[in-house]
């Protein structure tokens, strides 16, 4: 791991002056800190592509919906020859 950000600073020179607290997530740095570091997100460094908190919630909701749909479709299925339920029409 790169706790002090030395690897990031070496290979991403835009983040060279970013405080260690923000070097791994520069978008969290207040604008005045970004300006002092010479790296304003969206100008000198790209905006993040994925907001992991939002993407995680969306993914969990989609998985829950898929499980619920599967559960409702298999609850009405007829038992197969092995005693296990199978989907209708299969």
Would you tell me the structural class of the helices and strands?
mainly alpha
> Overall mean pLDDT score?
89
Order of helices and strands: HHHEE
Number of strands: 2
Q: Which value, in Å, is the CA radius of gyration?
A: 24 Å
Q: Sheet with the most strands?
A: 2 strands, antiparallel
**Helical percentage:** 40-55%
Spans with pLDDT under 50 lasting ≥5 residues? Answer: none
Overall shape: elongated
First and last CA, distance = 50 Å
Task: Tell me the β content.
Answer: under 5%
Strand order of the largest sheet: 1-2
Number of discrete helical segments: 3
Summarize the structure.
By secondary structure, the protein is mostly helical. It is 41% helix and 4% strand.
Q: In words, what does this structure look like?
A:
Strand 1 (78-79) and strand 2 (85-86) form a beta hairpin. The chain has a two-stranded antiparallel ribbon. By secondary structure, the chain is mainly α. The protein has 3 helices and 2 strands, in the order αααββ. Helices cover 41% and strands 4% of the residues. The mean pLDDT is 89. It is elongated and about 70 Å long.
Index terms:
single chain; 90 residues; mainly alpha; 3 helices; 2 strands
Write the layout of secondary structure elements.
Blueprint lengths: L5 H6 L19 H7 L14 H24 L2 E2 L5 E2 L4
Antiparallel strand pairs: 1-2
